[in-house]
Amino acid sequence: APRGARGLVGVRRLLGDFVRAVHPDLTPQFPPEARQINERSLAELNAYVDQLEVNGELPLQAGPECARELPFFREHRTRAGRVLAGRVLPVRLALPSIPVGCDDQEREYLAARLIRDAEVVLEARSE
What was the pLDDT predicted at 69? Predict the structure, then answer.
């Protein structure tokens, strides 16, 4: 349960399905480059979520978080939903920009967008 009135909690938990689908430790069958890219992008995603979950306003010296897309690979599924062993599908997860002085309400909106986009990326059909 969230403590205090400020700050976002649970963003990581809500991204759990996405993280599990791309986490290098949980996808040993992925090609090494795909796992490396996922590892780098996950580190960046974690740092971004840290900024979303900050209590109160971001310090000015932190600067804004610029919008960008992170490359990931997820398992390749056929239209019928069958997983193709060892095959991966490149996907991109959009990170919305977090402006300096962003308030809790704005961060909640950005978090909701991120979570929805992560779900969409996982649902994206191969081919």
Answer: 96
